[in-house]
Design goal:
Largest sheet of chain A: none
Number of helices of chain A: 3
Shape of chain B: globular
Oligomer: heterodimer
Distance between the termini of chain B: 67 Å
CATH architecture of chain A: Orthogonal Bundle
Mean pLDDT of chain B: 84
Low-confidence stretches of chain A: 1-5
CATH architecture of one domain in chain B: Up-down Bundle
CATH topology of chain A: Helix Hairpins
Number of domains of chain A: 1
Shape of chain A: elongated
CATH class of chain A: Mainly Alpha
Structural class of chain A: mainly alpha
Strand content of chain A: under 5%
Largest interface: A-B, 78 and 87 residues
Strand content of chain B: under 5%
Largest sheet of chain B: none
Number of helices of chain B: 6
Distance between the termini of chain A: 53 Å
Number of strands of chain B: 0
Radius of gyration of chain B: 21 Å
Helix content of chain A: over 70%
CATH topology of one domain in chain B: Four Helix Bundle (Hemerythrin (Met), subunit A)
Number of strands of chain A: 0
Mean pLDDT of chain A: 84
Chain lengths: ~110, ~170
C-alpha cells in the first residue's frame, strides 16, 4: 500500500473494510432472495447499495483519491430518487392488489 | 489493540449483526430499525476512511430520509408481519441462501487476493488532503462533476413528480 503525501496511513488494513463490505453485500443479497415482502426486499437492496458504497470509499481511500467519495455521493442521491419511486410503486400496488407479497403479484408471470 | 482497530471492530460488528437481524426479522418495522443501526455503523466506518461528509449525508439522507420514508409506507399500508402461511417455494429459498453464501465466499477470495492499489502519479486527480477535504469536494462537485450534478437535479425532480403521480388516487 502506498501512502500519498497528505494522506495519513490507515490505522486498519484496507482488506478489513473490503471484507466487511463484501459480507454486508452478501447479507443484503440473501435478504433480497429470501424475503417475500416487497418492502423487505427493497430494504435488502438498500443494504447492498450501502455495502458497495463502503467498498468504493475503501478503494478511494487506498488510492488517496477523492473520486471515490464523489461516486458515493451520487450513488446516495440516486438511491434517494429510487426509494421515492419504488415506495410509490408499492403504494400503488397495494391499492390495486391489496398485498405487497411478491409471490401473490403474478399477473405477468406466465 | 489500538483505538482505530477498536472503533473499527465495534462499528463493523454492529453493522454486520444488525444487517443479519434485518434479514431474520419478520416484521418490516423491526427490519427498518435494525437497518438504521447498520447505517450508523457504516457512517462510523466512513469517518475512519477519511470521508466525514459521506458519513454525514449517510445519516441525514439514509437514516433520516429514506428509512423514514420506508416507515411511513409500512405504517400507511399497515404491514404488521409477514404472512405466516406455507412457503410455496422452499427449494428456491434454499438455492437463494446457498448462492448468496457462495457469492460471498467468491467475492471475499477475489478481493482479499487482489493486487495492491496502483501507484498514483502526480496530476492523476484530486487527492484526499490531510486536513479538511470538504471544500475540495465542493469545488470538485461544481467543476469536474458539474454535468452529473445537474443531471442529478433533473433526475430528483423527475423522481419526485413520478412518485407523486404513481401514489395519488385516480381522479375519475
Amino acid at each position: 500500500m502506498n501512502v500519498l503525501p497528505g494522506v495519513a496511513p490507515m490505522g486498519v488494513p484496507p482488506e478489513a473494510y473490503l471484507a466487511v463490505g463484501t459480507i454486508l453485500f452478501a447479507i443484503g443479497l440473501a435478504g433480497a432472495l429470501l424475503k417475500r415482502n416487497a418492502l423487505s426486499i427493497f430494504l435488502s437492496i438498500e443494504l447492498m447499495l450501502n455495502a458497495v458504497n463502503l467498498l468504493v470509499l475503501t478503494y478511494g481511500r487506498m488510492r488517496g483519491d477523492l473520486a471515490g467519495q464523489m461516486i458515493v455521493f451520487f450513488v446516495i442521491a440516486i438511491a434517494a430518487a429510487e426509494a421515492a419511486v419504488g415506495l410509490a410503486i408499492f403504494v400503488a400496488l397495494f391499492r390495486a392488489r391489496g398485498t405487497v407479497e411478491v409471490d401473490k403479484v403474478n399477473l405477468l408471470k406466465w | 489493540m489500538t483505538g482505530a482497530t477498536f472503533v473499527f471492530a465495534l462499528a463493523s460488528g454492529l453493522a454486520i449483526v444488525f444487517a443479519l437481524l434485518m434479514v431474520v426479522q419478520k416484521a418490516p418495522v423491526k427490519s427498518v430499525l435494525a437497518l438504521v443501526v447498520t447505517f450508523f455503523g457504516l457512517a462510523v466506518l466512513s469517518v475512519q476512511l477519511a470521508a466525514p461528509f459521506i458519513a454525514a449525508i449517510q445519516i441525514i439522507v439514509y437514516a433520516g430520509a429514506i428509512l423514514v420514508l420506508f416507515l411511513f409506507v409500512i405504517m400507511l399500508l399497515n404491514l404488521t408481519e409477514e404472512a405466516r402461511e406455507k412457503d410455496t417455494r422452499p427449494i428456491q429459498r434454499w438455492l437463494g441462501l446457498v448462492s448468496a453464501v457462495a457469492l460471498a465466499g467468491l467475492l471475499l477470495g477475489v478481493t482479499l487476493r487482489a493486487p495492491p492499489a496502483p501507484v498514483l502519479r502526480p496530476g492523476d486527480g484530486p487527492r484526499i488532503p490531510a486536513g479538511d477535504e470538504i471544500p475540495l469536494l465542493g469545488r470538485l462537485l461544481f467543476s469536474d462533476y458539474l454535468f452529473a450534478f445537474e443531471a442529478m437535479s433533473v433526475l430528483l425532480l423527475a423522481a419526485a413528480v413520478g412518485a407523486l403521480i404513481l401514489s395519488k388516487r385516480r381522479m375519475e
